[in-house]
Amino acid sequence: MTIGRQAAALAAATFLLLAPAVQAQDISPLGTWQSTKGDARFTVDYCPDGGELCATLTWLREDVRNPARLASVGTHVVEGARKTGPNRWRGTLHYAGHTLAGSVTLVSPDFMRVSGCMLLIFCETVELERM
């Protein structure tokens, strides 16, 4: 093997060894997020009482506004989510007047998935993009 090929092989091996470590690093969920449909916006921050995660519904597009959804604007839709692993949290979700056990997963720095189920029958997933 030539020196150039050895160097390329070493660089590729180093990248493959380091890639899982980079993926396992925590990504900050804090910030402003919008649903991929563009119909709702959220602010994700730490809950007032500590390091748990909370998300507040801050805006709804006009065509999806109804009394029930408007009542949720300004309230936590994710509450008390505790870290369960790299880029993962579990907590309480409030959706359409229901309280669900849910999860928040940061798929990438700019893409988040929020999922919740009630009695394992009614499940909902919302995908969010960082604004």
Describe the 3D structure.
With 131 residues, the protein is an alpha+beta fold. The chain has a single domain (27-130), classed as Lipocalin (Beta Barrel). It has 2 helices and 8 strands; from the N terminus they run αβββαβββββ. The termini are far apart. The model is unreliable at 1-23 (pLDDT under 50). It comes from Devosia nitrariae. This is DUF2147 domain-containing protein. Residues 1-24 form the signal peptide.
Structure, briefly:
This protein is of the alpha+beta class and 131 residues long. It has helices spanning 3-24, 67-72; strands at 31-35, 40-46, 53-60, 76-85, 88-95, 98-108, 111-118, 122-130. It contains two helices and eight strands; from the N terminus they run αβββαβββββ.
Helix/strand-derived category reads alpha+beta
Order of helices and strands: HEEEHEEEEE
Q: Please tally the β strands and state the result.
A: 8
> What is the percentage of strand-forming residues?
over 45%
Residue runs with pLDDT of under 50 for 5 or more positions: 1-23
Strand order of the main beta sheet, please? 1-2-3-4-5-6-7-8
Query: What's the CATH topology name?
Result: Lipocalin
- How many discrete structural domains? 1
Which percent range fits the helix content? Answer: 10-25%
Mean pLDDT rating: 83
Alpha plus pi helix count:
2
Please report the first level of CATH classification, the CATH class: Mainly Beta
Distance between the termini: 48 Å
Which shape, going by the Cα principal axes?
globular
CATH architecture: Beta Barrel
Biggest sheet: strands, sense, closure? 8 strands, antiparallel, barrel
Query: Nearest-angstrom radius of gyration?
Result: 19 Å
